[in-house]
From TrEMBL, chain A:
Organism expressing this protein natively: Jeotgalibacillus malaysiensis
SUPFAM superfamilies on file: Thiamin diphosphate-binding fold (THDP-binding) (SSF52518)
Keywords annotated in UniProt: Oxidoreductase, Thiamine pyrophosphate
Cofactor: thiamine diphosphate
CDD domains on file: TPP_E1_PDC_ADC_BCADC
Enzyme Commission (EC) number: 1.2.4.1
Protein name per the record: Acetoin:2,6-dichlorophenolindophenol oxidoreductase subunit alpha
InterPro entries referenced in this protein's UniProt entry, alphabetically: DH_E1 (IPR001017), PDH_E1_Alpha_Subunit (IPR050642), THDP-binding (IPR029061)
Keyword Magnesium: no
Native organism taxonomy: Bacteria, Bacillati, Bacillota, Bacilli, Bacillales
From TrEMBL, chain B:
GO molecular function, one term: oxidoreductase activity
Needed co-factor(s): thiamine diphosphate
UniProt xrefs under SUPFAM superfamilies: Thiamin diphosphate-binding fold (THDP-binding) (SSF52518), TK C-terminal domain-like (SSF52922)
Keyword flag Oxidoreductase: yes
Keywords: Oxidoreductase, Thiamine pyrophosphate
Source organism superkingdom: Bacteria
Organism: Jeotgalibacillus malaysiensis
Matches recorded under NCBIfam families: PRK09212.1
Protein name, as recorded: TPP-dependent acetoin dehydrogenase complex, E1 protein subunit beta
The keyword Oxidoreductase is assigned to this record: yes
Length: 327, 326
């Protein structure tokens, strides 16, 4: 397997096992949420990232614990990759008090500030400047942490993209802007919404590096983001890394996906990022078929358990309504 | 005691706070060597340097969001917006991010930032540089809104705003900048949510904000010559609002006139009037509550038109007499 030669030198066999497990956790979490939405057991809306597991897990894999992320409305994967407990995530979607936001945030607002997850965001492009501000803290307090700002191809057409990246670049802030280009901003295909093929090319306008990586190949993601993170940590400023990938599901639960073809979907499903990591590990002798199946089964059980945990968790009471508006 | 202008009081509060708290810094457009659009940060860069008096590009959306991100991770930023009209460009970060983060994260995280910005008309800057949009911000749970009218209040309220762990919008009226009052040398705090009775009176209560406090005091003096005793209350902070002081005053005087420069329609005066209408003070009213506010018009350039778009001293006098003659 040629991909392994791109393996970042600091990644150990055990790390890869954990990364494979995280990818399965994301996959099963998303599938379970999809199922419960269909059954009306979870309300509101949600945005699933099935098929995009490698960009979330690969990008966060090269971070240190102290590093921070900002996430998007399609953020369950980033959250899990940053070390969130799936019990508390699922409980949040069930609106329970044991959820990360005590049932007040829901799918689009899960955050774990103490662990460096500065939050998902319901506003497209809402994370750019927040990530820039967190990176400013790192620089002003000399804390050495790097901020990873996830965004989608659609968000790169928001004004906040330009303003925040321009600011981060003139101040040389330790932030990496990682675009998960899943080909569509809701129903809008990239090629109809922007006049350049790569979001990463826009980096040129800010005098910073822009790299395109295969978003379904976790090693490629780790390599590209790893270089950008090193650069940020060395005080050389921000970068844009664009991971080309695809969301298997619709934009949100109400999406009939009329804007794309079954053939296109099949083409991308064949490039399953989880399958890719598993196959590489087995081919390289890092994993047996049996061990791979065990990892998958363990991840599945954790998600099943999270459902039980959520169902058993208490609902908020009316007394909780007016709490936590102000610090 | 020495006197300071309102502008100097704001600057002194920030300088003294920055000397004792390294987490406080200012960001905004042209605040460095230039000293800010109105000169509030003049010479501060010499003492604190460009890291803490942080000149930004013309990017209100980015600098407001940067303040949110910095506040969320341990800094205490002060954001200067050159004109309060530009809050429209910073609106997403104030309304959807800063105001919501703590609640939607289930009480985790906090956003201790102050957005300072000059508001109001009277400088001939016309429609896009003269608005009073404070009512918008009071509508959003999670934000606090401050509107000082005097130099003394400005210094003490800004200290409280800087100490607050929540996002605070601090409106500075452009015409207040040159007004002066006695201001203590030491740093002191005026709690947010404590109104000030600027003048005691017994016949009518006038609740006024920002520059209208000064106009109402002028009106009160004119009324006094006619034997009418007006009490003038400055809420100083709209969120939180000191309803008790206003209710007690109305119970005493039985009459209420509310005055603000912002457009009357949908303005904060409606909130104050409703608060009284819903309170025990309603039974004490001897006349309908009177609201005076700006006309529903973009602020025009022509000086006479500009003046006529907002309440005048004469109109306040007339409004008071009208309530007394009911």
């Amino acid at each position: 397997m040629t991909q392994v030669k791109n393996l970042p030198p600091n990644v150990k066999e055990t790390d890869l096992t954990n990364l494979l497990k995280q990818m399965w956790q994301i996959r099963f979490f998303e599938e379970k949420v999809d199922e419960f939405f269909a059954k009306g057991m979870i309300h509101g809306t949600t945005h699933l990232a099935v098929g995009q597991e490698a960009s979330a897990v690969g990008a966060i894999a090269v971070l240190e614990d102290r590093d921070k992320i900002t996430s998007t409305h399609r953020g369950h994967g980033h959250c899990i990759a940053k070390g969130a407990e799936v019990n508390r995530m699922m409980a949040e979607l069930f609106g329970r008090t044991t959820g990360y936001c005590k049932g007040k945030g829901g799918s689009m607002h899960i955050a774990d500030v103490d662990k460096g997850n500065l939050g998902a965001n319901g506003i497209v492009g809402g994370g750019f400047a927040i990530a820039t501000g967190a990176a400013l803290t790192s620089k002003m307090k000399n804390e050495g942490f790097v901020v990873l700002c996830f965004f989608g191809d659609g968000a790169s057409n928001e004004g906040s993209f330009h303003e925040a990246i321009n600011l981060a670049s003139i101040w040389k802030l330790p932030v990496v802007f990682i675009c998960e280009n899943n080909q569509y901003g809701m129903s809008g295909p990239v090629k109809e919404m922007m006049n350049v093929e790569d979001v990463a090319k826009r980096a040129e306008a800010y005098g910073i590096p822009g790299a395109v990586v295969d978003g379904n190949n976790i090693f490629d993601v780790m390599n590209g983001v790893g270089q950008a993170v090193d650069r940020a940590r060395n005080g050389e400023g921000p970068s844009i890394v664009e991971a080309k990938t695809y969301r298997w599901k619709g934009h949100s639960k109400s999406d009939a996906k009329k804007y794309r073809t079954r053939e296109e979907e099949q083409e991308w499903r064949a490039k399953d990022p989880i399958r890719h990591l598993r196959d590489v590990m087995i081919a390289e002798g890092l994993l047996t078929e049996e061990a791979a199946d065990e990892i998958k089964a363990a991840a599945k059980k954790e998600i099943e358990d999270s459902v039980e945990f959520s169902k058993a968790s208490p609902m908020p009471t009316i007394d909780d309504l007016m709490e936590d508006i102000y610090a | 005691m020495r006197e300071l202008t309102y502008l100097e009081a704001v600057r002194e509060a920030m300088s003294q706070e920055m000397r004792q708290n390294e987490d406080v810094f200012i960001l905004g457009e042209d605040i460095g060597v230039y000293g800010g659009a109105f000169g509030v940060t003049r010479n501060m860069i010499e003492e604190f340097g460009p890291e803490r008096i942080r000149n930004t590009p013309i990017s209100e959306a980015a600098i407001s969001g940067t303040a949110v991100g910095a506040a969320l991770t341990g800094m205490r930023p002060i954001l200067e917006l050159q004109f309060s009209d530009f809050i429209t460009i910073a609106m997403d970060n104030m309304v959807n991010q800063a105001a919501k983060i703590r609640y939607m994260y289930g009480g985790k995280g906090k956003v201790p930032m102050v957005l300072r910005t000059p508001a109001g008309s009277g400088t001939g800057a016309a429609a896009q540089h003269s608005q009073s949009l404070e009512a918008w911000m009071t509508h959003v749970p999670g934000l606090k809104v401050v509107q000082p009218s005097t130099a003394y209040d400005a210094k003490g309220l800004l200290k409280a705003a800087m100490d607050d762990d929540n996002p605070v919008i601090f409106y500075e009226h452009k015409l207040c900048y040159k007004t002066s009052s006695e201001v203590p040398e030491e740093l002191y705090s005026i709690p947010l949510g404590k109104a000030d009775i600027k003048r005691e009176g017994k016949d009518v209560t006038i609740v006024a904000t920002a520059i209208m406090v000064h106009k109402s005091l002028e009106a009160a003096e004119a009324l006094e010559k006619e034997g009418i005793s007006a009490e003038v209350i400055d809420p100083r902070t709209l969120v939180p609002l000191d309803t008790d002081t206003i209710i007690q005053s109305v119970k005493k005087t039985s009459r209420l006139v509310v005055v603000h420069e912002a457009v009357k329609r949908g303005g904060f005066g409606g909130e104050i009037a409703s608060t009284i209408a819903e309170s025990e003070a309603f039974d004490y009213l001897d006349a309908p509550i009177k609201r005076l506010g700006g006309k529903a018009v973009p602020i025009p350039y022509n000086p006479e038109l500009e003046k006529s778009a907002i309440p005048s001293v004469n109109e306040i006098v007339a409004a008071v007499k009208e309530t007394l003659n009911r």
